[in-house]
Amino acid sequence: MAGVEFAAGAGPGRRRRAAELRWQEPTTRLALRWGTYRGRYLAGLLLIVGGLLHLQSSTTHLLWPLVVGTVAHTIGWWILPAAGWRRLVVPLACGVQVWLLLTGPQSMWTLLIPYCAWLLVRHRPAVSYTTVPAVAANGVLAIVLFREYAQMPLALLMSAVVLSGSAWAARFLAAARKTKASAGRMFK
């Protein structure tokens, strides 16, 4: 079988170069002290988003979601796979930001803070920050479209779509940058 692969042009050197061209999440290469990469990533993402949504369910008569949502949101940032200082810096700024969302859809522009924090924690290169204007435009659009707190679920839904799309675009830009750099080194 190895002779067939080699005859087809997929020798060991070529396979190694192909592996160098494939992009890999920078955080997957971190040595984790506990848990698996996928488990910590999914749990962290679930707690970040779930904490934000839970916090939004509070009222002046029901304050318990404020505590639960804030704690879940903070723990979510702490358990994401990332360099330690990145995970420790982010929760304070993002914790303040999710409380600002309690003022209504007019504060959707503050989602710039957790979005930039996401790029930082995910170890995205500088080129990925070119996706930030889309998130800012989402904030402006929310100010124009939504006036009442009753419209907050729609504003959150629109923001979730924009932030998810921007995060995937940032990932694509990081992968394209890495692949292009690797290809340039390989063919020199």
Fold and architecture overview:
Keywords: Membrane, Transmembrane, Transmembrane helix. This is Integral membrane protein. The chain crosses the membrane at residues 39-55, 62-80, 100-120, 127-146, 152-176. With 188 residues, the protein is mainly alpha-helical. It has helices spanning 2-7, 12-21, 37-56, 64-79, 84-100, 112-121, 132-145, 152-186. It has two domains: 35-94; 104-188, no CATH class. It contains eight helices and no strands.
Question: Concise description?
Answer:
The chain is mainly alpha-helical and 188 residues long. It has 8 helices and no strands.
For the structure shown, list the relevant keywords.
188 residues, mainly alpha, 2 domains, 8 helices, 68% helix, disordered N terminus, disordered C terminus, membrane, transmembrane, transmembrane helix
